[in-house]
Amino acid sequence: MSHAHKQFLFAVLVGFALAALVHSQNQSGFISIDCGLPNNSGYTETTTGINYISDSTFIDTGESKYLSANHDLNYYQPHWYVRSFPQGARNCYKINVTYGTKYLIRAGFQYGNYDGENKPPGFELHLGANLWDKVNFSTEFNQTTRELIHVTLQDYIHICLVNTNKGVPFISSIELRPLLNTSYKQGPGFLALVSRYDTGLSTTNDTGSSRLLSGDDGGGAVMAARASGGPDKVVVEEVVGPGYPTDIHDRIWEPYYVSDETEFQLRTSAIMNESYQNAFEIPSAVMSTAVAPKNASHALQFYWDSPDNNSEYYIYFHFAEIEKLRPHQLRNLFIIWSGGWSPRPFVLRYLNAVTVSNTWPFSGSRKHSFSILKTDNSTLPPILNAYEIYEAKRFLELETNQGDIEAIENIKLHYKISKNWQGDPCSPQAYKWEGLNCSYPESRPPRIISLDLSSSGLRGQISPFIANLTMIQALDLSNNDLTGPIPDFLSQMPDLYVLNLGKNKLAGPVPAGLIDRNKNDGLSLSLCENPNISKLGHVSCKSRKKQNVVIPVVVSITGTLILLLTVAAIWWRCKSEKKDGKTSKYLRLTIFIQTEPFKIQGRKFTKSEIDKITNNSTLIGRGGFGEVYHGTLENDAQVAVKILNLSSKQGSEEFQNEVKLLMRVHHRNLVSFIGYCDSPMALVYEYVGNGNLQQQISAAGADIGLTWKQRLQIAVDTARGLEYLHDGCKPPILHRDLKPSNILLNETLQAKIADFGISKALATETATHALTNLRGTYGYLDPQ
User: Fold this and answer.
1) pLDDT tens digits, residue range 149-199?
2) Helices (H), strands (E): how many in the chain?
3) What residues act catalytically?
4) pTM
5) What whole-number distance in Å separates Cα of residue 233 and Cα of residue 223?
6) 3-state secondary structure labels for all residues of 155-198
7) DSSP labels for 728-774?
8) Could you report the per-residue pLDDT of 540-550, keeping only the tens digit for each?
């Protein structure tokens, strides 16, 4: 038998032995998903014995891709396939879990040049509505993982990949491992892994069992460690180490190798006592080695860098005494953090584990360090067996009301809707589901307030799950193939003010409650082109059109008479004041005469036009919406271009709201709207060249300080702009974020109000009341 055949046979036997061992281990609660694996297939991974299944039942979108053949054998088997997402801004997995369980969640990414482009992409990874991390790659051969610890608040989780225009997102694997709820305690949110090290390994004696091949290039902090007094730092870059079945929770422990000059290794072959296990259940193989400084008076020191001062961290130090001490020997330790934290000294007991961690997160610095030292009465140097560092991530985005989520998902299932409805319906706002509008009350979950399923191929009866959208104001089910009667529950939905059921095949009488609300409660009801609906008691489309002809004529005549009388009264008043010498100094009246409703169709710019306008332009502002550039049109007109930042919390809603509002407002004390662009989302305004009021009044001691007369005129201009919004617009508009930085000044110091991104119409076609809750910048809104 050749040497090669012997090696192959040996590998097979080892594989069978390992498989037999790991199959005896308990994988209860494990969820192991190979993303992109063909439908309804699975396998047992040879190095771990973990059973993996296809992701096809967890997601409706994406494309399965197989890595290039020359890369297969170099990678961990769950990374042979990937699922890529060339379509859609956000694609989400929905994974059923056990409510209230603490999970270790790991997402793996192996590019491997699967697309033949040799351009590793960059994208965002979200847990539900919240940003988990950004995923980036340096070369086609590098892989990366993202790992976090999270307590589930529902019986499912969403893991989403978000396209940030840096390439096509993809994913290789998703793994969930249950943990004891008494371990890794933290506040609201989740813990994202920075580093997890098995210390005390020797480069000559320990090779570790390889679980993840090649280097991890993203996400974690740069780590280093050394014994004080030594000249070197040992930087660990490998991602190898024991996982399952060595660690029953399948945590991957990176090896931290001792420095021969300043440190030495301690190890034991003794098996840890079962009683040693604390809530963290660190494997015996990890705890059986430790690192110590060669000079007992020196400290073990650890460092890491933070991306900013606001990042918050939890550290878990795992200790166990692995030497049998003589009666006169003592190992007493304490820890000092660079920020001042220091728990009480503690004594280690033989083969018993203790975990020391901070109760409150560490933050406030970009550089962090820890030192482990012995106390004065300790006869032995400090040791450390293992440690973990996590960054605390908080839930800043509230997920949609659970009742609304269940209702809309049941509607999706009922009608087999093929839209890319994945993840949370309303959050984050930039990625809310197509056809939905949501309200975002302060400090409460978003609610679905409108649903547009027009021309969506709906069949069958009107779904009873619609009744569970209890806050809905507008419902459009027109131009489908809906059949059967109109359900009475539609008349029982208190906030519903627009209902369009036109162009369907509905039959039978119209519920009396809908007829009554249509007549007396302002419900806009459309049932046109439903030939089998009884017309008894219902205003037909034909008669409604006749009414619509009469009403504008009456209104037009009445309006004209009122306008003529108003002009006559003003003329008489001005003539009397002039005669008496009482002409008002500041009173100026602007009269707008409209013969038909005011219609402005703002110019729609293309992406190339926006690029041309902003090319080599000056950045003149930056806010929560995005960035504002000073540009020039083809006719040399100067403009300000506001470009939406997709990561903005309220960007998409503000963009849509602002376009609708600016298309119909026109006043000399409001910034003029010129046009917009859908992709990228951008708004084009007139350029107001003298800055804003905040800049003017903040220029202490400068020559451009405003006189009292100028300040008064600015106040009057601002009041005129607000008066037009409140009384001149139909329906009226509340700005809701008026402040000095939103009052712009032109060359003559004429004031123009800007930024309608969070304005609110007092009445719309879909509502009859205003929402005046606080929005925008606190401190600038009258509580009345």
Assistant:
1) 999 989 999 999 999 999 999 999 999 999 999 999 876 679 999 999 999
2) 9, 44
3) 737
4) 0.65
5) 10
6) CEEEEEEEEEEECCCEECEEEEEEECCCCCCCCCCEEEEEEEEE
7) ISSS-EE-S---GGGEEE-TT--EEE---TT-EESSBTTBSS-----
8) 454 343 334 33
